[in-house]
Amino acid sequence: MAGFSWYLSEGFQVIIEKSKEAKCSLKDVQLRFLCPDDLEEVRSLCRDWFPIEYPQSWYEDITSSERFFALAAVYKTQIIGLIVAEIKPYLKLNAEDRGILSRWFASKDTLVAYILSLGVVRSYRRSGVATMLLDVLINHLAGPVAHLPHEHRVKAIFLHVLTTNNEAIHFYEKRRFRLHSFLPYYYSIKGRCKDGFTYVYYLNGGHAPWGIYDYVKYVARAAWSGGGLYPWLWGKLRTALTIAWHR
C-alpha cells in the first residue's frame, strides 16, 4: 500500500502522532468502514483486547448497521485497529449518562456520540493508530464540513472505562477527555462487579452542567466583551424594560 489513504468522504483532518516505537508507518495505513465480511476478524480482535464478552448480535450490528461509526485501520490487508461509536439522541441516554451535558441542551435535536470500542493490535500500539482513529471521529463530528444527518448537532463524545485501566485513562485524558463521574459496580466481568468512570469530550459548543463559578465567568466575559460592566448591565436592563413595556 503506497501512501496514506481512506475510503471516506472529503473534509477530514487527521493529526498523526509520531513515535520512535512505531511498528508501521501511518502513511501505509488505510482507513475504511467495517463491513459484514469483517465480522469474524473483529470478533477475534475484541476477544483479545477487551475483558467483556459481546453477543453475536453486537458484531453483526457494528459491521452492517448505519447506526454505528465503525472505522477500521488496515495495514497490509490486516485490521490493526478499530473504533466503534454510536450517534444517539441525548434524551434517550440512560439515567447515569444524562448529566454529561448542561440542561440547556436537553432537546430532541441534541445528539451525543458514545464510544463503544477503541482498540489496537498489541504489536502496533504506540504507533499513533488509536490517536488517528479518534481524530477522524472527532473531525467527522466537528470538522469544517457538516456531515449528514447530524450536522454538528453532536455536543459530546463520551465513554465508559474501567477504573483500573490506567493506560486507557491516560490516553483519553491526554486527548482532552474530562472525567465526569464514578460508576460503582458498573461492569460485570466473569461474574465479578467492577467500577467504572465516565469520560467526556465536548464539541460544537457543548459543555457540562455549570456551577456558580461558570456563571460568574460567563457574565464577566460577556461584560468585558461588551465594553465594560456598566454598558453591559444597561443594555440588559434596557432590553428587559422594552419587553415589559410591550407586554
UniProtKB/TrEMBL annotation:
Its EC number is 2.3.1.259, 2.3.1.48. One of its GO terms (biological process) is chromosome segregation. The keyword Transferase applies. It comes from the Eukaryota. It holds the Pfam family Acetyltransf_1. GO terms for cellular component: Golgi membrane. It catalyses: N-terminal L-methionyl-[transmembrane protein] + acetyl-CoA = N-terminal N(alpha)-acetyl-L-methionyl-[transmembrane protein] + CoA + H(+); L-lysyl-[protein] + acetyl-CoA = N(6)-acetyl-L-lysyl-[protein] + CoA + H(+). Belongs to the acetyltransferase family. NAA60 subfamily. The lineage of its organism: Eukaryota, Metazoa, Ecdysozoa, Arthropoda, Hexapoda. SUPFAM superfamilies: Acyl-CoA N-acyltransferases (Nat) (SSF55729). It comes from Parnassius mnemosyne. This is N-alpha-acetyltransferase 60. Keywords: Acyltransferase, Chromatin regulator, Chromosome partition, Transferase. PROSITE patterns: GNAT. Residues 29-215 form the N-acetyltransferase domain. InterPro entries: Acyl_CoA_acyltransferase, GNAT_dom, NAA60-like. One of its GO terms (molecular function) is histone acetyltransferase activity.
